[in-house]
Amino acid sequence: MPIIDNDLLSVQEARILAEQAREAQALLRALPASLTDAAVAAVLDLVRSEAKALAEQTVLETDYGNIEDKYIKLRFLCERMPQVLNGKNYRGILRPAYGGEIGEVGIARGPLVVILPSTNPVVTAAHILTVALKSGNVSIFVPPKRARNTLSAFFDKVSACLEKLGLPSNTVGFLHTVAAAGIRTLCEHPATGLIVNSCAPAAMPSVRASGKPFIYGSMGNNPVFVEKTANLPQAALDIISSRSFDHGLLPGAEQSIVVDIAVESAFAQAFAAAGAYFMNPDEAQALANVAFDNEGRYKSEFVGKNAVELARRAGFQVPDNKKVLVAKEPYVSQQSLYRKEKWAPILAWYPEADWEEACEKCIELLLDEDGGHSMVIYSRDEAVIEQFALRKPVGRLLINTPAAFGAIGMTTDLYPSFTLGSGNPKSGWSPDNLNPENLIYLRKLARPVRRIDAALAAYCGSVENICPISDKQVEDTAAGGVEDPLLDSFNAFLEVLSHQTY
Fold first, then answer.
1. pLDDT per residue as tens digits for the range 350-371
2. Per-domain boundaries in the chain
3. How many other CB atoms are there within 10 angstroms of residue 402's CB atom?
């Protein structure tokens, strides 16, 4: 029986992919932007034509989420991305340096290493691929084990499509043999310019250890504050629709509710009517016992399950029309598992006396797991909204809109994305919704706007003051008694400047 070492195979494949990507990046840099624009359009056309099949295959292979909502995400991507990409350029001369203006050149950071999630694998891959191509980047994609077959088939079609257009054959790479050693090799390889990790926390040690710049998009431990002036029925409907979408798998979705105690009873009633089920203490404990492991991590077998199924697995029943399970918590306890990220339609519930105490509670929740991702406030008091905007350590503050839909740019004009950066520097250098600007660096161009002699005189008072010498030195030098190489050199320098023309 042959012995197969997957670690060694993964490392070997990773090295080959990285070298191929380096060569492809050099070739891609020389191609016109019109060709990569055509590639973006072709990828989106491919996703659009196969969206239903991709949604079905993803749910079948991962057992996460539901087909209808995954299809909606793919359709959103295909319709929204052309609106934000068409007519934009991120490669080459972006702004010429004329008339004293500072010019800019867009330079791709690639090759990119892209680590994909199991929760939103295809839509995340398609999104990152489009922004990478638009910005002129070659990419190597690392699939999660639960979606490897679906993604492998998808990228086979993508590669054939891109080669048909005339792009380099290794513009898109795919790591078929996935192992920790292979991921580490890709991250550390000299060819790698930037790492994008989208909701794959297990890979973060390799990402951080590589020393390479990285962007980490997580689910986010995102609180929502319902302030006493909020439109309570609308807030209830928004939160339920957002938290239950794709069984709680959208990045940026609500993780906990902080509610002003003045409206707690009224909001709880509206929330229950919208589809929330408030667990009693025994039910909440039963769910925590089965859904979290001994280290406090949410178990993979409970990811992306609906509220009815979660309750059934925990040993209690809820009505079929309930979409979100709610655990009431008196405070943020280190012993409570509900304060953590939950990859399913589950929410913690915290009442607070007023907006100031709610503000502190939200900060506590955000910082509990190196947060700083997103949060939502429902309020009609602009002064309170302003204070939250100033004080919250988040990458995005959403106002009166569903967290998940607002964060990905569906109900807001945030950049459409399924990789959401964090406001915490530990989670990468960009808090943005991933977009082409994150995948380039800007080379500055500058032309002269003033003569050197005039500039030196302006900063030194006069040209004579640039290299001051004593009267004795002047007399000695004039008499030929002292040689001053520095003064001679400076006089020669001024002579050159006097003949400059622009």
1. 998 888 887 888 888 888 765 5
2. 6-218+436-442, 222-408, 452-493
3. 26
Per-residue burial over 264-289, b if 16 or more Cβ lie within 10 Å, else e, is: beebbebbeebbbbbbeeebbebbbe
pTM: 0.88
Cis amide bond preceding 111, omega within 30:
yes
Domain at 222-408: CATH architecture: 3-Layer(aba) Sandwich (3.40)
| 8 Å CB contact between 19 and 173 | no
The tokens of 278 are what?
A: 């408030």
CA dist 252 and 371 (Å) reads 11
pLDDT per position as a tens digit, 201-245: 888 888 888 889 999 888 888 999 999 999 999 999 999 999 999
3-class secondary-structure state, position 221: coil
Residue 227: helix, strand or coil by DSSP?
coil
CATH, range 6-218+436-442: 3.40.605.10
**CA 322, CA 312: separation in Å to the nearest integer?**
13
Whether 92 and 139 have beta carbons less than 8 Å apart is answered as: no
What's the CA gap between 101 and 446, in Å, rounded?
Answer: 7
Q: What are phi and psi of 419, to 5 degrees?
A: -125, 105
Beta carbons of 406 and 252 less than 8 angstroms apart: yes
DSSP bridge pairs for 195: 113, 214
**Single-letter amino acid, residue 153:** A
The overall average pLDDT reported for the chain is: 87
Q: What angle do CA 217, 220, 225 make, to 5 degrees?
A: 140
Q: Is 4's pLDDT higher than 70?
A: no
| Dihedral angle over CA of 229, 232, 236, 237, nearest 10 | -110
178 or 498: which carries more pLDDT confidence? Answer: 178
Q: Which amino acid is at 329?
A: E
243 half-sphere exposure, CB direction, 13 A CA radius: 33
- CA 168 to chain centroid, in Å, comes to 27
pLDDT digits (tens, 9 = 90+) for 245-296: 999 999 999 999 999 999 999 999 999 999 999 999 999 999 999 999 888 8
Among 9-13, 330-334, 417-421, whose mean pLDDT is lowest? Answer: 330-334
Containing H/E element for 374? Answer: strand 374-378
